[in-house]
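To: structure desk
From: M.T.
Subject: fold request, one chain
Message: Could you run this one when you get a chance? Sequence is below, nothing fancy, just the single chain.
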Amino acid sequence: MLGVSDILNWAIFLSELYSDKDSPKKPAKRVWELLPQEIRISIEKYMEGNSDTEFYKLTLKSVNALNERILSRPDFYQEEPFKEVSIPEEVQKLLENQATPPADDIEKLNRLLMEAAYPHEIAKSEHIWTKLNGPLGLLLKGREAIGEGAEPRPDVPPLNDKDMASEEKLHEALDTMVLRLREAQKRLADDSQDDSKDGVRVL
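Reply: Done. C-alpha cells follow.
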C-alpha cells in the first residue's frame, strides 16, 4: 500500500505521469489508463493551472486511486510500458514465475514495479522481501533488502493480519502528520511573502 508520504515529490510525480501518459513505452501510459476518469481530469486541470481542488486533496485522491486501481491489479504489469525500466533482478524473478500470487503479494509486487518506474519519486519499501507471504515469496524468502550482499533471514516470519493492520494505521497517522506539516509550511511561506510585499522584514 502506498501512503501520501511515500510519494517523495508529488509535483514531479504528477508532472511525469501527465507528460508521459501517451507514450507507449512509458509506465505512465499504463498507470494513466487505469486511473479513474475523475482523477485524470483533476490531474489535467492541476497541470494546466486550472485546478479548483486543493493540492493536498488531489494527493489524497490520487494515492487512493493508485492503491485501488493499480497496486491491486494482477494484470498491472505489461512488458511494453516497462521495457525501458530497470527492474531489479528479484522483481523480474517474481514476474517470470507462473504461479498466481495471492492478493497481498500482488500489491507488494506492483508497489515494487512502481518504485522501479519512479525511483526518485516513490520511496523504497523496507524489508518487503520478508513480507511476501505466498508462493512468489518462496522465491525470495529470507532476502532482507534489494541489492547484492543481502544476508538470508530464514528466521523472519511473514507479517500476520494483526501486524498489517498496525502498519496501515501507522501509515495513516504518518500521512496525516505529513499533510499538516506541509500545510503549515505553506502558510508560513505565504505569510512571509505577504510581509515582504508590505515592506516588513521577516527575520
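Reply (cont.): The chain has two domains: 4-159, 161-203. Let me know if you need anything else for the meeting.
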